[in-house]
Amino acid sequence: MARKSRQITNRIQRKLLGIIFLTVFLSIVLMAEDQDKSLTLPLGPPALRGKYLEVVAGQLYSARSGKVVTFEQMVKDLKKVRLVYAGETHDNQEMHDWQVRIIKSLYNQDPNLGIGLEQVTVDLQPILDSWAAGKLSQEEFLRQINWYLTWNFNFGYYQKIFNLAKEKKIPVFALNVPRDLITKIRKQGYQAMSEEEKKLIPPLDLNYEEHRLLIRTVFESEEIPPQMKGNSLEAMFESLYRAQVAWDETMGLNVIRAAETTGCRMVVLAGSGHLIYNLGLNLRASRLSRLPSATVIGVVVPENSKLKVSRGLADYIYGVKKKDYPDYPAPGLSLKKVEGLSNLVVNADPKEPLTKEARFKKGDVILSVADKHFDDPNELKIFLAGFNWGDEVEFQVLRNGEVVTINLAFEPELVVKKEKMSEN
């Protein structure tokens, strides 16, 4: 039972919190016959509650008017605000392309622009500064910032954004805090933080009932065994909710600090779960400053379908065509270092389809990958990120005293199969 509880806690946490190392909070990848309740809640501006849009892939909508608008019309409106929140599903390239387009358009009108990133923690700000100043190559940047340990989504999704920042010398600001602090708050509460740690994470206001309704809607969408319901379930929700609020409070504070320090218009890139209904980091930022803002969100729409969403979801909502699998393979291989051993070790039995199909096992000692030795998890993940769908790479691992060959095949059919199984 304890093991089952941990598994469910982890699954809910992945969905609720946008965990850097695992997956996307509120990814908003939906099937028409199984509408996500979180997208139709009576939240957001009072005038828009109970009003809906039917979103089609490829179209952009103004929530205020409830009508299709052009990109140029949206940008004209965004010129009037200082804070532009551009939501994303982290492994959706089309959403990142929208972000690039927004940044380019706003920069061309006024180069006094900054970019805020959920994807980077504040302790890594000097590396972001070096990148924006053109002092680092991409390889140097990925190594110095430990990209695949601090964020873990393929850098290809963000490459255009970072290249644009370097090309135009647009300042880039880290908004997030190290994950261990969020974990501490989740497990022990804000009171367990040291005075030094509280300088990074402001006090948490846990009493926004509408935000609680949103997060609880996601929480309760999970299949939870009856044995876990009751006081323990409520405690689980409260711990997860603390973590979510800690993220939002911290990123909201850092957005305002960056905007007020520099005087820039800020384009903030964050997971849509931190932005929908203007109840996440954007709400927390609005409590600290009256800088005008607008939120732009993408939702994934199945082919030949329409998706019903609340007009309170964001100021602008666009439809993205659903894809069968992500643009880049994600092996999902958990790795660790062991004292006294130069080789990397598989930290857990894989749950992702590519590495699960390849039959990696917890405790496998990785001797070589494509005849190369790796002693740094980030280095190995940088190497694996260079493979595309249809490629294959050979691992040599030590398992129970024997050398075993594992062929990791980047086959999209495995991901498609998993998606279909999860929908049934």
Write structural notes for this entry.
It is a single chain. With 424 residues, this protein is an alpha/beta fold. It has 2 domains: 2-321, 3-Layer(aba) Sandwich (Rossmann fold); 335-423, Pdz3 Domain (Roll), CATH 2.30.42.10. Helix content is 38%, strand content 19%. It has 15 helices and 15 strands. It has helices at residues 2-17, 71-78, 93-109, 125-132, 138-144, 147-150, 159-168, 179-188, 195-198, 209-220, 231-262, 281-288, 353-357, 377-384, 412-423; strands at residues 52-55, 60-62, 67-68, 83-88, 113-121, 172-176, 265-271, 293-301, 307-310, 316-321, 335-337, 344-346, 365-369, 392-399, 402-409. The protein has an 8-stranded mixed sheet with strand order 3-2-10-8-4-7-5-6, sandwiched between helices. Residues 14-33 have low confidence and may be disordered.
Tell me the CATH architecture of the largest domain: 3-Layer(aba) Sandwich
Number of helices: 15
- What average pLDDT do the residues reach? 90
**How many DSSP-defined strands?**
15
Structural class: alpha/beta
Order of helix and strand elements from N to C terminus: HEEEHEHEHHHHEHHHHEHEEEEEHEHEEH
Major sheet characteristics: 8 strands, mixed
Report the C-alpha radius of gyration, rounded: 22 Å
First-residue to last-residue Cα separation: 25 Å
Principal-axes geometry comes out as: globular
CATH topology value of the largest domain? Rossmann fold
**In percent, how helical is the residue content?**
25-40%
Low-pLDDT windows of residues: 14-33
Strand order of the largest sheet: 3-2-10-8-4-7-5-6
What number of domains? Answer: 2
Q: What percentage of amino acids are in beta strands?
A: 15-25%
